[in-house]
Sequence to fold (239 residues):
Amino acid sequence: MFLDDYFSCSKAGEQTCISAEQASRFAKRVAGDYNPIHNPDARRFCVPGDLLFALVLARFGLFQHMTFRFLSMVGADVPLQFIEGCDGLIRVQDEAGKCYLEVERSGESTHDEAVVEAFTRCYVAFSGKNFPHYLKPLMEDGGVMFNPRRPLVIYDSMGFSLNRLDGLEPGLALTDSTLEINGKRGDVRLEFHILAGGEEIGTGSKKLVVSGLCDYDAQAMDAVVDEFYRLKAAHEASA
Fold:
């Protein structure tokens, strides 16, 4: 499985642990995500939500209709359990029962590894473009930005609906993006189409929360963007 390098199993496979190094590698290698919160030495380090998303699909399959709600951030080396509840929901939780991710699914499903991997890689690559590709223009237009010293963008939820699952070689295209400002908090919604062979086969939506909003500062934002591309270039040079 292409995710094998990004998690470890314990207790006879009943628990999954993700180290800071594994999470950071996934963010950079698979998602192209250089958010500093995924750096192993980050003070507020968290596992990328897209890695949890990918692990759910790998374990339970790809369904026509799925909704993911991210309830809390996962730290490094937390023993996680992926549980199917009697209510039909999938939950990712720790030994104490704290739930980090809740998943609804319905419709037809597939466990075809090639199909699941293709969809996972496609979505995660799209999702990894949150910053600067999608967020910077929204914040600039709204006249706000995150604190450049402590940029905090949290994955809130995402969902999608597919018309079909067969022969999936998908691509995702952003169709709309909005930023709703509420004091120091901004709610970002990204809408997308799912395409295959030029045909639209589904739609989806993703919600992010941007915390600690302040007035937009072009010079400070340029510095954050420059740092993003510096980290990207350094990673690609060492890969």
User: Anything to note?
Assistant: The first helix runs from residue 20 to 29.
